[in-house]
Amino acid sequence: MLYTEKGELLLLKLAKSLEDVSKIESKPNMEGRRMIMILSPNK
Prior knowledge:
Elements: H1 4-17, E1 22-31, E2 34-41
Antiparallel strand pairs: 1-2
C-alpha cells in the first residue's frame, strides 16, 4: 500500500517489454490491496 506508484511503474515496464506480443486492455488500477492490469494478445 505504501509503494503503489512503484508497482504501477513496474507493471507498465512489464507491458512495454511485452508490447510485441500483447497490448494493454486496461491500465493498472487498485482493487482493494491488489493492483491489476489486463493484457490481451495481439492478433
